[in-house]
Structure formats: structure tokens, C-alpha cells
Amino acid sequence: MSIEQETEMTDSEIDALLSRHETGVLALARSDEPYAIPISYGYDPDDRTFYMRLVSTPESEKRRFLASSPAVRLVVYETGEEVYRSVVATGDLEGIPPAELTADQIVQYGEARRPLFEIWAETKRDLDIELYTLSPETLTGRRTVVDRE
User: Fold this and answer.
1) Distance CA 143, CA 8 (A)
2) 79-123, pLDDT tens digit by residue?
């Protein structure tokens, strides 16, 4: 496998990829300690904002990282026979208290996949579901064409 061509994606190509997909990997960092988790998201291409529901338990590592207001990086990618595309968003998560949700935000959270409670050993009442937005400071995309010969 050799790389024939690697190019930056346009804003419209980035928006199209993010709108086609609903899952990615969210990486959080504090000091020298990284933490990465698969997440689902909703994406609004008009204001280029991600909407996420993050579920944690009272003693979880995820909750400890989120409480530290870490810088984040969200990676969304897709692979095909001859093309690989990836988008990287960086910035800070902003928590949204449910009582402060706007009608537009409710629509966006409705677009994001709901977390699967069945994967948790704890009961639903022991889970903390927090709503976040990510309005990226940077949003970049790369497209790589691969020669399979």
C-alpha cells in the first residue's frame, strides 16, 4: 500500500463527513495524562458545533477528566477501498445544564445517538448524563488516496 495523494479537505467536505457520521473518538488531556473514549455526537454544519451526551458513573475516570475542564480533541474518520478521510476538531467542551437548553439545542441532541444503558453494570439512576457542546477552535480534514497495487 502506497500513498498516492494526501490533500486538505474543504470546509464543505468536512461538514459532509461530519454530517454522514455520528461517532468518533474524544481525547481529553490533563497534565501528562491522556484519556480517549468512543462517543456519539450530533453535528450542526451551520454553526459547526458538536453536541454530545456523555455518560459516567460517580467514581469514573471519565468524570474525573471532565471535572478538570480539559482541552479536547475529537477525531472522526472513514475508510474506503481507495480513500481515507479524517477530521480533527480541537477546543474546549462547554457543559449545558438541561434547564438552559434552547429549542435548537434540543433538536441537535435529538440527532445524537443515545448512550446504550445496557452496557453499564450500574442502574440508570446511578449514571450521570451530562450534555456538552464543542465549538472547535480548529477543525481540519485530510483526504488520502491510496494505491493498493
Assistant:
1) 6
2) 988 899 999 999 999 988 777 777 776 666 655 555 443 444 555
Q: What residues contact 147, with CB distance under 8 A and at least 6 apart?
A: 1, 2, 3, 4, 82
* Contact assessment for residue 5 and residue 55, using Cβ atoms and an 8 Å cutoff: no
Per-residue b/e over 84-119, b at no fewer than 16 CB within 10 Å? ebbbbbbbebeebeeeeeeeebeebbeebeebeeee
8 Å CB contact between 42 and 109: yes
Total domain count, the chain = 1
| pTM for the structure as a whole | 0.81
> 15: phi > 0 → left, psi -120 to 50 → alpha, else beta; which?
alpha
Domain that holds residue 22: 2-147
Report yes or no: 18 and 87 within 8 Å, Cβ to Cβ. yes
CB 135, CB 49: distance < 8 Å: yes
**Alpha-carbon torsion 97, 101, 104, 110, what sign?**
positive
Q: What is the CATH number of the domain that holds 84?
A: 2.30.110.10
Tens digit of pLDDT for each residue in 68-83?
777 899 999 999 888 9
